[in-house]
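User: Okay, second chain of the day. Same drill as before: sequence in, structure tokens out.
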Amino acid sequence: MRSNDKRTACRLIANVQSIFILVGMKMAGIILIVLGAIALAYQGFSYSKRSEVLRIGDASVSATTKEHVNVPPWAGFVLVGVGVALTIGSRRTA
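Assistant: Same drill. Structure tokens below.
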């Protein structure tokens, strides 16, 4: 293999790697935008928590409580902003 062919192969590999990195950045940006939009729309999420209240021998009593976690609006804006920055940044370097 000639040295020119080796250089061409190395450049091709470097270009393919940079394309994969840019596509990954764009996908990560889109995912962050979607997550930020969901965080802004719902401003939190709920989940059920089951806990054992009383246990006597083999018998037990459990209770299910519904917990709510608030997501502050600034977190949604940060996710959208970082997502937009990643998406635009990957487009400019392509």
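The mean pLDDT is 83.

User: Thanks, on to the next one.
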